[in-house]
Amino acid sequence: MSKFDNDKVMPRYMAVAVVLTIIGFAVIGKAFYIMTVKKQYWTDVADRLKRDSVSVKPKRGNILSCDGQLMATSIPEYKIYMDFKAGGKEKDSIWQANVDSICIGLHEIFPQKSAEEFKKDLEEGHQKTSQHWAIWPKRIDYNTYTEVKQLPLFRMSRYKSGFHEEEFNARRRPFGSLGERTIGSLFGAKDSARLGLELAYDSILRGTPGLTNRRKILNKYMNIPVTMPIDGCDIVTTIDVKMQDLAERAVIDELKLIGGDLGVAILMEVETGDIKAIVNMTRCADGEYREVKNNAVSDLREPGSVFKTASILVALDDGVVDTTYHVETGCGVYPMHGREMKDHNWRRGGYGNISLPRILEVSSNIGVSRIIDEKYGSKPEKYIEGIYRTGLAADLKLPIKGYAKPHIRMPEKDKYGHWTNWSKTALPWMSIGYETQIPPISTVTFYNAIANDGVMMRPRFVKSIMKDGKTVAEFPPEKVMERRIAKPQTIKTMQTILEHVVSQGLGRKAGSRMFKVAGKTGTAQIAEGGGYKTGTVKYWLSFAGYFPADNPRYSCIVCLKKSGLPASGGGMSGVVFHHIAEGVMARNLKMNVKDAHDSTSTTIPDVKNGNLLETSYVLNRLGIKSNQSWGGSYANGNPIWGKAERQHSQVAFQKTSINRDVAPDVTGMGAKDAVFLLENNGLRVKLLGRGKVKSQSYPAGKAIIKGSECVLVLN
Q: What residues form DSSP beta bridges with 645?
C-alpha cells in the first residue's frame, strides 16, 4: 500500500500547475506587450545608451589607373545636426540671441533654402527639444562643413552648442562615369561593394576595422583606442584613362550616328593581356548612352563572322586545307541539308569560285561552311576539339562579377549512336558564328593570341596592390594555356590573311594610312521578341583585330547592336576600330615642332582672354611679341585679367579690372580662367561643351548673389 494519499496530494499538484501556467501566460503576454505596444519606447532607450566598445572604420583603399591617376577614392562627407538639450539654459539664451544670424548664414551657404525656412525648421526642433535634429537633409563636403562650423554658436564645443555631425566615407570617381561598370561602385552610404573591381577586390580595399572603448570621465565620454584600424590597400589597374576616354567617345559617336542600342569596345595589350580600355554603352530611356551593364564580359551572344577566323584556323592547323584550296560558292546561294546558305552579296550574283584567303577577305558564308561541312561533317567532334584547342571556349576566370564563360557545345550520342544535341545543319551554321555563345572578352582574347604568335594571355585588370606608396603584391601576366593555340606556321598564315581582310577585303574602313591593321568583320542577326521571322530583327556588328599588323601592340574588338538595315560590321564597327587605333597610335608619335613650321603661314596663335600674366609668360618663351609684358612668375603672382587680340605681328593685350561685387565678363576665356574668376566671386559654375566661353547665363555686370549658378557654354 502506498504511503501517499492521492486524494490529498493530486489537488495540490493541480493547483501548483495551474498557478505556474497562469504565470507563464502572464510572462508571454507581457513580452508580447513590450514587443508591440512598447517597442518604440524601448528602441529609443536603447539608442540613448552608449556602447562600451565602438568599431572604428578604416579608410577604403584607392583604385588607380595604370599610370597612377585616381579612378576611385574615398572622401569624408557629413550630415549636420543640432542637439537642443545640450548646454542647458546658457545655450538657450545664446541660441535666442543668434538664431537670426545663424539662419542668414545657413542661407548664404545653402541658397536653395531661405533664412525664414531655416528659422521655422530649427525652431520646430527647438520646441521638441530634439537631440538629433537635421540642419540640412543632404550630405555636405568638408569645405561646406567648415563654413557651417564657423557660424555663431556652432563654433563652440559640441557639449555647449549642441552642433554635431555624422561622418561618412563617401566613394568618388574623379573621372566621373569613365569605366564605371569596370571600376565598380558601392551601395549608397554603406561601405559595401556592389560591382566591378570594387567588389572583386573588396577584401583588399576594405581594410580591417579598429576598436575603441568609450569611457565616461568628468561627465564626458572619451574614446580610448584599443586596436587601431588598418586602412585598405590601393589597387593599380591596367586601365589607361586617356585610352578609355578615347574608346568611349568613339563608341558613343558611332552609336549616335547609326541610332544604335548598345556599344562595346575592349582594348587589350598584346604582350601582357592588359585591358587598357573597356566600354559598355547602352541607350537609356532619355536617349543618352550610359554604362548600365558590363556587356563586354557578361553577354553571351552568337559572334557572327568574327568566328570564321577560328573555323579556318582549325582547318589549316589540321592540314585538311591550305591557302591554295578553292571553293565554289556559286551565285551566292547554296543548299545545305535542306536549308539555304547565303552570302551577303547573293542578290548581286555571289563570288563564284574563290580561294581560301579570299573566303575570309569577303567573309563568304558558303565558303567557310562548305569547307567545315565537307571536312568534318562525319566527325563534328573533331572540329569542336579544334575550336577548344584555339582557346575560344576557355574559362578566362575573370575577377569581374557577371563574367560568363563561353558556351560551345560538344556533339553527343546516345547508346544507340543517335545524336542527342546535334543536327546536320548545326556544323555549317556553327562554323560561321551561329549556335554558339561567346562574350566579346573571349573573342578579343582569341584575336590577341593570333597577334601574339599563338600565345593566349589571360585578360588582366589589376597589375599590383600598393600600401603607403609601396608595392605589396604583384599580378604578373598569365597565360590561359601553356601550349600555343595553333602551329607557328598556321598562325603566320592567318596573320597574313587577316591583314589582307583590311587591306583588300571588307575591313578596309578599319585600316589606317599610317600603319598596318589586321582583323575580321562580323555581322550576326539577333532575334528579339518572337524569333527571326516574326520578331524584331536586330544586328550584332563586330570588328576584331590588332595593330600595327607588322609589330602588334594592341588588339581590339568593337561590337555594336542596332535595329534594321543598313548593318555592316566593317562599315560601322570597323570605323570605331579605326578611330580607336589611330587615337592610340597618335599618342606614341614624337615629332619636332619645327617640322610643322610653314614660312608662308602666320605664326601668331589665337589667344584666349583671361590671365594675361600667364599668357605673356608663354608667348615670351615661344618668341612671340606682345604689346605689353610683365615680370615675375605667373604661377605665384597675382593674375592680371584682360583681353587678347591677335594682330599681324604681335598679340595685343588690354587689361580689365575685376569688381568682386558684380559678375565678370568671361566670354572668350578658357574654362580654367572662367571657372576661377566666377567661383572666386561666389558663383557656382556648370560647364557645357569645350573650348572658349561663348556665353554665360549669369550676365556680366549683375550684382553677385553668392551660391547662384552660372552656366557657361563653350565652343
A: 652
Listed in order, strand segments (DSSP E) in 44-173 are: 53-56, 63-64, 70-82, 133-134, 163-172
- Per the listing, cell 584550296 goes with 325
Residue 94 has a pLDDT of 81
Whole-angstrom distance, CA of residue 698 vs CA of residue 332: 64
Q: What are phi and psi of 209, to 5 degrees?
A: -65, 150
Q: Where are the alpha helices (DSSP H) in 319-408?
A: 356-361, 365-376, 380-389
* CB neighbour list of residue 86: distance below 8 Å, 6 or more residues apart: 131, 158, 159, 160, 161, 162
Among 118, 91, 94, 124, smallest CA distance to 104 is for 118
φ, ψ dihedrals at 280, nearest 5°: -140, 95
CB atoms within 10 A of CB 41: 10
Assess whether pLDDT exceeds 90 at residue 8. no
Those residues whose C-beta lies under 8 Å from the C-beta of residue 186, and which sit 6 or more positions away, are: 171, 192, 193, 194, 198
Q: Which three cell numbers stand for residue 698?
A: 549669369
- State the cell numbers at 448: 590577341
pLDDT digits (tens, 9 = 90+) for 420-434: 889 999 999 999 999
Eight-class DSSP state of 595? G
Count of Cβ atoms closer than 10 Å to residue 397 Cβ: 11
Query: In 516-595, where does DSSP find H-type helix?
Result: 531-534, 574-586
Tens digits of per-residue pLDDT, 299-350?
Answer: 999 999 999 999 999 999 999 999 999 999 999 999 999 999 999 999 999 9
Report the pLDDT value the prediction gives residue 212, as an integer from 0 to 100.
81
| Integer Cα distance of 336 and 367 in angstroms | 12
Q: Where are any strands of DSSP class E within 198-243? A: 210-217, 220-227, 234-237
Gap between the Cα atoms of 141 and 477, Å rounded: 40
Q: Give every CB contact of residue 174 below 8 A, 6+ residues apart in sequence.
A: 69, 70, 71, 73
Return d(Cα 582, Cα 544) in angstroms, integer: 15
What gap in Å lies between CA 387 and CA 408, rounded to an integer?
Answer: 9
Look at the block and give the residue holding cell 541658397: 111
Cell of 390: 584555339
Which residues pair with residue 264 across a beta bridge?
280, 559
Q: How many CA atoms lie within 13 A of 370 on its CB side?
A: 23
State the pairing for strand pair 684-689/693-696: unpaired
Specify whether the CB–CB gap between 247 and 277 falls below 8 A. yes
Please state the rounded mean pLDDT for residues 156-166. 83
Could you give the CA distance from residue 15 to residue 88 in angstroms, rounded to a whole number?
A: 57
* Rounded Cα gap, residues 658 and 654, in angstroms: 13
For the record, the C-alpha cell of 528 comes out as 528579339
Bridge partner list, 164: 81
Return all residues near 200 (Cβ < 8 A) that are at least 6 apart.
184, 399, 400, 401, 461
**What is the per-residue pLDDT for 166?**
85
Report CA-CA distances (Å) from 612 to 640, 681, 690: 5, 19, 21
- The single-letter code of the amino acid at 28 is I
Side-by-side strand order, sheet with 275-283: 289-290, 275-283, 262-269, 554-563, 536-547, 518-528
Inter-axis angle of helices 241-258 and 574-586, nearest 10: 150
Predicted confidence at residue 216, as pLDDT, reads: 59
Contact call for residues 562 and 251 (beta carbons, < 8 A)? no
pTM: 0.73
**Which 3 state secondary structure label does DSSP give 234?**
strand
CA 312 – CA 329 distance, rounded (Å):
16
pLDDT at residue 639 tops 80: no
What is the rounded CA–CA span in Å between residue 695 and residue 666? 8
d(CA 62, CA 173): 10
Angle between helices 88-109 and 115-127 (to 10 degrees): 150
